[in-house]
Amino acid sequence: MLKLMYITNRPEIAQIAESAGVDRIFVDMEYIGKDARQKGLDTVKSHHTVSDVTAVKQAVEHAQVLVRVNPIHDALSDYFSSEDEINAVIEAGADIVMLPFFKTAEEVRRFLNIVNGRVRTMLLLETPEAVDCLDQIISIPGIDEIHIGLNDLGIGYGRRFMFELLADGTVEQLCFRLRKKGIPFGFGGIASIGKGMLPSEYIIKEHYRLGSSFVILSRSFCDVAKLHHIGMINATFLRGVREIRDLERECEKHSSFFYKNEQELTRIVDRISRGMEE
After folding, report:
1. Strand blocks (E) in 111-183
2. What pLDDT shows up at residue 78?
């Protein structure tokens, strides 16, 4: 089964997600440079804090706490350095620390040296520059997992629709290289079954075809900013996770439909992309 990850800094939502079967609660501290590169896009910009890490860690029992820190940086006038930031989130209880938007192997080495094996590490592969030196990067000891970020990587490659990278073979080539190296990986995010411009069932089947290990539950899976009743949020999580797990059981039984799904996914993505040109 895929490890499911959900972004929140609210302890009560973290508890609901965990109870529904979400494996990792994702605290998102990244903000440096994000507004500029995602200007005009409807993307999640959370800017969570170290205190949020502590609160979420105290709220959950079994779910792992994944923390996305900022890209490698020196101290700023209003924010501490990467070393201080990473040390702080580890002390606050992070089980996994994610490095986003790196472009060089040296940035990865600096990140891994700071973590120094104290918690699990995850790289967020989301720049063309990082793809270009991926073989050098994945030869560095200490990388536990890699997530392929389709949104920023799509922006970097000039794509209109991030799932074009799934349809054109880019993701498949990256997954092949990571499988060959033996590094667990995931990619992108999913909405509830049947939802999304590209319905999530097509994406989940690609996760199984490509050997993925984890995926982010997107904001549209459960948009807590729009659901104000805690009972509705709970029901949304329970139903959504159950439907995903039901589909996964079908994927485990019937691998023969993966080729047909790949073809249909490519057709849908092509239609969406052409529509964005008009």
Report:
1. 120-125, 145-148
2. 87
